[in-house]
Backbone:
């Protein structure tokens, strides 16, 4: 990313008096597309993550939202070194993770963990709960042998699983319970940073709230830092302190929770918020949602200039289809990547009624500009 | 919701969520045991300890409207029990649910066996295999005669083999030897070679399959190309070539030959299985936990290979038994006088019309053995099939 | 709500059970409702509540499933589909009644071109010539918003994106002017911006074609914007039925209340914690005696444990299956 972006993130960090836990700079993950029978030639690349720079502050929950193909899951995996970086750096408490190998990397693994999307695939069906949650203790030698079982039971209780089921197998539990077991496993190494990769998307609606509450409770108790990756904007709003919106491998907007939801500046964010259905017919009736035309372009061949310009109602020819907008700090702590956003004005995609219907808490009203 | 509703306030430290519907506030907020004071400062990031956990406490009685309190109390459900039940999970509902709901801790093997039992054909095959093994092991005690002895009484006046009689239950062969005894001892040969050869092929297949499937990269390309090359050769011709180049093929040589010929399909199968297991999220989770490759292979990959290995062992033995019989048929397998079913068919070929028992019985033996292993293999595959596993 | 002799669809005591290794699974346990001409009705519930099976039963597709047993009546345009032979049901299915499935990837045949898949139904049901069917198909594709329809009709499903495929499915469903469209989680697999497009399209088409829609989903936001009336299902039964606005403003069943409270909303202030429903959905092979929701219900009493509540009116036009629904009724009867 440009120097401007780097300045922006460090300015944010310094300005907010927060302690940076994870610093991501210019992160790129490109998956090569090969072709050829005998020898594989690289003919292109899927640019899943295309230059991300942001910080995760200690103790916060940073929400990462976007639609399918935007690269959010890949970002989470890349931060944890599960994907090879094509470019950029990930610094955890100042240490460059990509440089670590073998034993050093394994030791660093204690600091960060992941909670997976699919509760059925993320637990080894041939291992008992005791072994699943106990394995991290074994690997990192966290408890002497005679204390391990006790510790596993403790962890299970923490997440709401009956500790007496320690010898049962995952298939005897429901999806929500399996997700809890996965959380217990993540906690076993006593991490500081947890990447939650769509942890509730695969669960029933009535169970999701349980898991969200659990995650929040654990964060309060242990001072965890979360990177919460999801596509459900309502849930992200509930749990996050700051939110980053991704589109086609880039961050288009990053702001403190209420600022993003009450006054989104980037056209994509506005359209995204507009598209989220609200469970209340009286409200839905009043809304005039922005409906974006067309489909998301392929990450293998993103549009030139601003990646969003092909679907943007406010796109300006000659500018948006030519130049790549940098992620700039428009207001303190609020970053946007859009040519048309200035300190005093931004393109208003949503109508006045739409804005009124989805505005959040204390009734902060966006200044009435021209409704579109 | 409806306009005119008093606004909720997002104020940290105060339990929110008024109840417009008038339902008692469930103790979800304090479900996990910390007190309801949510302004409790975060613990130092050292990780969870026992102190952090307390049994459910906190009394929502103050927030429960009086009429509902009656309903709850009348049940014997105190607030503490509510909170407890949150923590304990399914167990608390035991009293509400029929007995069957209480889950038994059943291991996967019991499940597999249960499913296997339901397949009548598979069970039949298993019975046959057990019988075969018993016959092979106890051959010296079961066989009525010595398989190698050429009885004068075993041939007719003109020197022809005798049909089944009360003395020689299945008849005799061209040299006057008792067919039944030869068949019984032949079972030994077939099973031993079949099982050992398959074991050898499997051993090679698992090693190559894991190396290729787990470590990938250049190693995978090399191994899989080699496998492709091997698979391009017709197995049987290869066996012939190998076997004929050895002057005195004994049982061990046969085992090696068949094993060499058969490792390629096994490698292909195991490679495929490893590839699919490797991509599963629990393997990623293990890697994230900091497991070494060795630990991942032993604890996560291998246990999931057990099922395919068992299935392909069974099916593989069917093939190797057939391979041995085929080799012996053309004279490149087990050498006389050691009896082998394939060899016996070759011997009795010329007498096909006049002394059909010479070819019929050995042929039936081969067929039944191969069928039995195939049935068991199929039954095992279905029994292990994750599609049927209840979620 | 029900009871009109001329309802488009009238389901009475529909029950579907499956024989499985664990016992008899009661997927649908006595469901009754009606849909009028041109009405959009939502069937809401979580996985395993029986909503999809109900739709399949209405279409007559449950009969073909092994180990299934089905009872009750499904009166569509006056005829009980469950008592008709398959050949007659087939002439209804795809013509007067059409279905859109959740996953556009698997519900379109990957080896047939779109043209083949669309014209097949049109030719069968309307008896027109192939060229006429193609013309109609192209028109339909244009109506659902596929650009360059005349060229793209010869493409294969994999050449379309998820949203486009769903539009094709809608076009196929509409091709014979159905009176009733069953949509099973039509937008669950789609991104939220695409979902907005598809839902808007469905609403518009329903108005233009006069088709009734039965929208099956777990997403309360989707039904809020799309439906006039909502049926809430739990463990194979309908637990509440009400006009959409009334349901959200004042739910009359504890499960509905729990669902509504556990879903965060963009237009409301942030809460500190979400109100979750404790426990897990029941195992349909081992249902508790009495109310299936009781183990998770805050209003449960001894009565709920022993007897299963019937679906009865609470206020005019609304039904609820709960012994304690009277506590939940706020508004005076108009």
Residues:
């Amino acid at each position: 990313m440009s120097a401007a972006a780097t300045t922006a993130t460090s300015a944010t960090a310094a300005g907010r008096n927060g302690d940076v836990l994870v610093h991501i700079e210019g992160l790129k993950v490109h998956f090569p597309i090969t072709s050829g029978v005998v020898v594989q030639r690289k003919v292109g690349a899927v640019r899943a993550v295309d230059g991300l720079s942001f910080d995760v502050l200690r103790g916060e929950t940073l929400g990462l939202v976007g639609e399918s193909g935007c690269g959010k899951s890949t970002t989470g995996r890349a931060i944890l070194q599960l994907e090879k970086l094509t470019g950029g750096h990930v610094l955890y408490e100042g240490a460059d993770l990509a440089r670590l190998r073998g034993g050093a990397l394994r030791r660093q693994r204690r600091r960060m963990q992941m909670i997976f999307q699919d509760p059925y695939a993320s637990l080894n069906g041939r291992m008992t709960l005791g072994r699943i949650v106990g394995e991290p203790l074994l690997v990192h030698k966290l408890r002497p042998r005679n204390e391990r079982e006790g510790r596993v039971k403790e962890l299970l209780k923490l997440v709401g699983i009956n500790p007496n089921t320690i010898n049962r197998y995952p298939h005897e539990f429901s999806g929500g319970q399996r997700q809890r077991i996965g959380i217990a496993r993540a906690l076993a190494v006593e991490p500081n940073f947890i990447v939650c990769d769509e942890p509730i998307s695969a669960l029933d609606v009535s169970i999701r709230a349980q898991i969200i509450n659990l995650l929040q409770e654990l964060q309060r108790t242990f001072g965890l830092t979360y990177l919460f990756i999801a596509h459900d904007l309502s849930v992200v709003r509930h749990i996050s302190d700051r939110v980053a919106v991704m589109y086609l491998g880039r961050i288009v907007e990053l702001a403190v929770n209420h600022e993003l939801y009450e006054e989104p500046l980037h056209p994509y964010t506005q359209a995204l918020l507009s598209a989220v259905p609200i469970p209340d017919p009286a409200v839905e009736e009043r809304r005039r949602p922005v409906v974006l035309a067309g489909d998301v372009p392929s990450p293998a061949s993103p549009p030139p200039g601003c990646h969003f310009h092909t679907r943007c109602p406010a796109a300006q020819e000659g500018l948006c289809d030519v130049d790549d907008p940098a992620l700039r700090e428009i207001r303190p702590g609020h970053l946007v990547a859009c040519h048309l956003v200035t300190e005093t004005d931004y393109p208003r995609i949503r109508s006045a009624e739409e804005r009124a219907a989805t505005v959040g808490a204390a009734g902060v009203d966006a200044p009435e500009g021209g409704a579109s | 919701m409806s306009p005119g509703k008093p606004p909720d306030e997002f104020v940290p430290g105060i339990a929110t969520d008024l109840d417009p519907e008038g339902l008692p506030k469930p103790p979800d907020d304090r479900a996990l045991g910390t007190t309801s004071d949510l302004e409790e400062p975060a613990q130092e990031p050292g990780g969870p300890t026992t102190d952090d956990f307390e049994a459910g406490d906190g009394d929502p009685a103050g927030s429960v409207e009086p009429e509902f309190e009656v309903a709850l109390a009348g049940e014997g459900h105190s607030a503490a029990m509510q909170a407890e039940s949150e923590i304990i999970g399914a167990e608390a509902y035991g009293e509400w649910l029929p007995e069957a709901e209480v889950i038994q801790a059943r291991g996967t093997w019991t499940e597999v066996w249960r499913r296997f039992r339901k397949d009548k054909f598979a069970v039949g095959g298993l019975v046959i295999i057990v019988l075969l093994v018993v016959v092979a092991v106890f051959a010296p005690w079961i066989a009525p005669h010595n398989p190698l002895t050429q009885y004068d009484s075993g041939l007719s006046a003109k020197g022809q083999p005798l049909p089944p009689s009360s003395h020689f239950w299945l008849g005799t062969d061209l040299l006057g030897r008792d067919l039944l005894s030869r068949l019984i001892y032949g079972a030994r040969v077939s099973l031993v070679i079949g099982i050992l050869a398959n074991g050898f092929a499997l051993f090679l297949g698992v090693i190559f399959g894991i190396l290729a499937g787990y470590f990938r990269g250049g190693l995978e390309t090399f191994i899989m190309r080699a496998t492709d090359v091997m698979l391009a050769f017709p197995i049987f011709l290869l066996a012939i070539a190998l076997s004929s180049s050895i002057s005195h093929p004994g049982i061990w040589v046969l085992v090696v030959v068949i094993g060499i010929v058969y490792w390629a399909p096994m490698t292909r199968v195991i490679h495929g299985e490893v590839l699919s297991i490797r991509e599963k999220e629990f393997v990623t989770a293990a890697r994230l936990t900091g497991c070494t490759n060795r630990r991942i292979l032993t604890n996560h990959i291998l246990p999931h290979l057990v099922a395919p290995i068992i299935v392909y062992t069974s099916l593989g033995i069917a093939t190797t038994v057939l391979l041995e019989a085929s080799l012996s048929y053309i004279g490149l397998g087990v050498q006389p006088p050691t009896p082998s079913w394939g060899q016996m068919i070759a011997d009795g070929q010329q007498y096909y019309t006049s002394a059909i028992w010479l070819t019929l019985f050995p042929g039936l033996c081969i067929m039944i053995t191969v069928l039995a292993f195939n049935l068991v293999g199929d039954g095992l595959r279905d029994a292990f099939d994750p599609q049927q596993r209840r979620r | 709500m029900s009871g009109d002799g001329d309802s488009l669809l009238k389901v009475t005591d529909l029950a579907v059970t499956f024989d499985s290794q664990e016992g008899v699974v009661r997927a649908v346990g006595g469901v009754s409702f009606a849909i009028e001409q041109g009405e959009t009705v939502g069937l809401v519930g979580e996985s395993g509540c029986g909503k999809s099976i109900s739709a399949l039963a209405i279409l007559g597709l449950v009969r073909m499933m092994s180990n299934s047993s089905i009872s009750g009546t499904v009166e569509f345009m006056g005829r009980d589909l469950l008592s008709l032979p398959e050949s007659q049901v087939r002439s209804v299915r795809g013509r007067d009644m059409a279905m859109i499935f959740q996953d556009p990837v698997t519900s379109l045949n990957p080896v047939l071109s779109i043209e083949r898949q669309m014209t097949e139904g049109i030719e069968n049901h309307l008896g027109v010539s192939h060229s006429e069917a193609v013309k109609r198909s192209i028109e339909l594709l244009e109506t659902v918003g596929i650009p360059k329809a005349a060229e793209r009709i010869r493409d294969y499903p994999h050449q379309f994106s998820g949203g486009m495929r769903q539009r094709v499915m809608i076009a196929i469903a509409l091709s014979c002017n159905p009176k009733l469209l069953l949509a099973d989680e039509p937008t669950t697999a789609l991104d939220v911006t695409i979902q907005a497009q598809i839902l808007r399209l469905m609403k518009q088409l329903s108005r233009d074609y006069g088709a009734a829609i039965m929208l099956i989903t777990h997403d309360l936001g989707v039904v809020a914007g799309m439906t006039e009336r909502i049926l809430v299902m739990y463990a194979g039964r309908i637990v509440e039925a009400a006009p959409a606005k009334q349901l959200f403003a004042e739910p009359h069943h504890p499960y509905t209340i729990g669902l509504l409270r556990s879903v965060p909303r963009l237009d409301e202030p942030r809460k500190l914690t979400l109100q979750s429903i404790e426990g897990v959905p029941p195992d349909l092979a081992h249902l508790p005696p009495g109310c299936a929701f009781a183990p998770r219900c805050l209003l449960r009493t001894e009565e709920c444990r022993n007897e299963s509540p019937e679906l009865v009116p609470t206020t005019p036009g609304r039904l609820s299956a709960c012994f304690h629904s009277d506590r939940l009724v706020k508004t005076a009867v108009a």
